[in-house]
Amino acid sequence: MIAVIADDITGAAEIAGVCLRWGIPVSFSLDASPASGADVMVIATDTRSMTEADALKETDRIASALMDMGVTWIFKKSDSVMRGHVAKELKVLANILHKEKMLLVPANPYTGRSIVDGVYYVKGKPLNETSFKDDPTFPAFSANVKDLLREKELSVAYGKFSEEEDLQAGFNIPDSQTMQDLYTWASLMDDTVLPAGSAAFFEMCLKRNFPEWMLGQEPDPLSFVGNSLMIAGSSHQNSKDFVEKAVEKGVHLSEMPELLMEEKYNPAGTEQWVHDVSRGLKDGDRVIMAYGKKKVRFENYPAILKKRTAQAVSRVIEEVPVRELLLEGGATTCAVIEELSLGALIPMQELSPGVVRLKAVDLDMVLTIKPGSYAWPEAVYNYFELEKPMV
């Protein structure tokens, strides 16, 4: 068995989706636990949303538990645009696993994310000129991968690599534009190397190191059934565009009341939100919950607003059972899943790279989750009876 430690839950789901695509038995949980019958154990942490000290403590705890279980082949799924405590978490893992080289390949050709001459591009545009520059927690202040890594202790090699050269001690971030590039870098791995990066790189690591697992068996299609609640937890333009189209089509949009957007918690705000969403579900079968347009700025506000959203979602589901729960953004998704106490989820279907459907074990509910910056796939547009825009 191999293990993948992801720094947010949508990244973990993206990894599970890769396994589903290739017919590889996979488990999905929020902690390191034995997974009977699985070749790949995916562990969804929320370290990207934690303080640096808490993130390193959690990484150490998970890695130590895996070592105690005898799992030694570990891949670290990090954010594809290098948000979070990437370097610090990798150094903790490398120390526990006794790895002196870290091979970090965050590029993802599936989503137009590439690295050329050490510069990170999203669909041809430097990272710091995209909407990632406005990320509330880890804004892209540069497009240079060394800058984005925020590493001052160990050496960082980046730029052009060749498949013949040895990796150096410390960090290695090779230029990557195609899946073939990623496959080439996967061939550089040996017992001294800790692999990390995007789900696309993980896929190539599987193809290079475990080709006998790659059966390519698609799971049975899992249809959207019943009513739905979408939590639009991302500020990315993809999310805004979808919500706008859905509202034009008549889908009920319920925005967070301003009472909940103040630093001091006001329970009347939760009551107001829960009432509006529940009424929308009873009157129709599709509702979108989203943050309001009010600008919010107080200490730790992203985490606080996500927690309040999760509490409201839990209250809504107590009043009106929801069959389809659609979640975007890793921190929002993790907050909701924790509030609902959904510790175990069964990966069921990959709708598109990064967008995965999971069955709740103890509830008649299916979750569809995706990273905030990814677009919803055609299946979700069809479910909401919307026309997907041409890209």
UniProtKB/TrEMBL annotation:
Name of protein: Four-carbon acid sugar kinase family protein
Keyword Transferase among record annotations: yes
Transmembrane regions: none
Family: Belongs to the four-carbon acid sugar kinase family.
One Pfam family named in its UniProt record: NBD_C
InterPro entries in alphabetical order: 4-carb_acid_sugar_kinase_N, 4-carb_acid_sugar_kinase_N_sf, NBD_C, NBD_C_sf
Four-carbon acid sugar kinase nucleotide binding domain segment(s): 229-373
Superkingdom of source: Bacteria
Keywords per UniProt: ATP-binding, Carbohydrate metabolism, Kinase, Nucleotide-binding, Transferase
Molecular function in Gene Ontology: ATP binding; kinase activity
Domain Four-carbon acid sugar kinase N-terminal: 2-201
Signal peptide, first to last residue: none
